[in-house]
Specification:
Keywords: Signal. The chain is mainly beta. It folds into two domains: about 110 residues, no CATH class; about 100 residues, Immunoglobulin-like. Helix content is about 10%, strand content about 40%. The strands form four sheets. Strands 1, 4, 5, 8 and 9 form a five-stranded mixed sheet that branches. A four-stranded antiparallel sheet has the order 3-2-6-7, with no helix packed on it.
Length: about 240
């Protein structure tokens, strides 16, 4: 074998392993999709002091998982917590999974509707009855399909039927009822003159008056409640300034 042929054979021997080493490894198979649970924002209402140090637990999880810490505020902004829970959720003051079965540590419970993916949780004072949890939780669907831009979600927590008049339109809410007002009428300055009446016996008594600006592309939660000190029915609005898709 002459020197030129020997060099060619030697170079081919070097190139082949190099080309083989540079072949890309096959891509790993995609992992199966995981259920990421729901997105929640939480606020408190009529609660004397800030609620801190609570954890959300899935009491039906196949394997014990630590609770997920989340914030409970008095206002709504863009911050939310991803909670890997569907169905029932238990709130305790301990991250340990066992706390979800300890009555002394369970502070509230809530049931989430089927298909629920995004919600606002409103923490209210408990009933005070022996054996009941420290807080009650109202669950509100936060999807734009259920709570669209430019709307007001009204919930009546008072013991009376309440009628809200916006300009010339009336909206009536029985005790415990939650309903939507979409794109409400407005007068001057893109606002509506508002009057509220409560049914006392057979008479409607005025319990509030004011001006409601139109929400624009935002949303508003309006809560009707009985003031525990005065026993008067009042209204309070919470503006949601961070509406996403």
């Amino acid at each position: 074998m002459n020197i030129r042929r020997l060099l060619v054979v030697s170079l081919l021997g070097l190139v082949a392993p190099l080309a083989h080493a540079q072949e890309p490894a096959p891509a790993p198979a995609p992992a199966p999709a995981q259920d990421d649970g729901i997105k929640i924002r939480a606020i408190s209402f009529m609660v004397d002091r800030p609620i801190t140090g609570l954890y959300a637990h899935n009491p039906t999880a196949a394997a014990p998982l630590p609770g997920v810490a989340f914030q409970i505020k008095t206002y709504l902004n863009h911050e939310f917590t991803q909670v890997p829970i569907t169905g029932e959720v238990v709130f305790t003051d301990d991250a340990a999974p066992a706390s979800a079965k300890d009555p002394a540590k369970v502070k509230a419970r809530a049931k989430l509707p089927t298909g629920f993916r995004k919600g606002i949780l409103i923490f209210l004072p408990g009933t005070g009855r022996t054996g009941d949890t420290a807080y009650r939780v109202l669950v509100m669907d936060d999807s734009l399909r259920s709570f669209p831009r430019g709307s007001v979600k009204v919930m009546n927590l008072s013991p009376a039927t309440v009628r809200i008049r916006l300009e010339k339109n009336n909206y009536e809410y029985k005790s415990g009822e939650m309903k939507l007002i979409e794109d409400h009428p407005v007068g001057a300055n893109n606002s509506a003159a508002m009057m509220a009446f409560a049914l006392k016996g057979t008479e409607w008594q005025r319990v509030g008056a004011g001006v409601w600006p139109h929400p624009g592309d935002k949303r508003v939660i309006e809560i009707i409640f009985e003031n525990p000190q005065t026993r008067q029915i009042e209204l309070a609005g919470i503006r949601d300034v961070a509406v996403d898709n």
